[in-house]
Specification:
- By secondary structure, the chain is an alpha+beta fold.
- The protein has two domains: 80 residues, no CATH class; 138 residues, no CATH class.
- Helices cover 35% and strands 29% of the residues.
- The protein has a six-stranded antiparallel β-sheet with strand order 2-5-4-3-1-6. Strands 7-8-9-10 form a four-stranded mixed β-sheet.
- Helix 6 links the parallel strand 8 and strand 9.
- It is globular.
- The termini are far apart.
Length: 231
Amino acid sequence: MLTEIPRRHTLLRLSRAGEESLWLRRETVYPDPAAWEAVWERFRGIPVITRRRAAPGELIPVGVSLPIRRDGGRWRMASQVPLDGVTKAVSAVQAAEMCAEGSLPFSGLVTQLLRQVPRYGAAAGLFGSAALEAVTGLPYCHAGSDLDVLLLPQEDADLPALGGLLRRLEEKWSLRIDAEVALGSGRYGKLAELLSGSGTILVKGGSAPVLCSTRAVLAGLGSGGKSILKK
């Protein structure tokens, strides 16, 4: 049983009881409930995605994303599970490591991310379709898929340099990278928005996204964020 409350983007394997709880507590589904009824037994064992970090004692908000689509939209379900229904957690960093060890089309790019991102004061992880494909082996990615990267910055992280690194890797591999930065206290924001010069940034991680002051967010990121404010 999992003892530590998982962070956003962590993939969770569930016990049989956890799967039953997930199904019973389902909130929203796409494309429709009847369609999910038909495929649930086939896909019930795939890992679920932590949507946000829960408070101690609360149910964990999770999402389910299937490797199938209808009318261009991926099949999805939102639900909640109890902590004691989780048997294994795979963090975004662990998903990236699994990807680098594999032979997926983007494994080489992820290997370079894991090697180069720490030079600029951060750790790199994967989420989204790439993480699910790396962990399950199922075909989540398609020709137009982005690579969703999670950056976990240290106090002195060089965010502009990280942005430059990602642009160079995008050009080299002809693959768009969508990077999210962990801002602390369970909050997350897009690296591109942090570096855009905009006065506001959309911060996720709570029950709903919140528009926040970019200056305040950067100031909370330590010396790395404050160095951007001085420019």
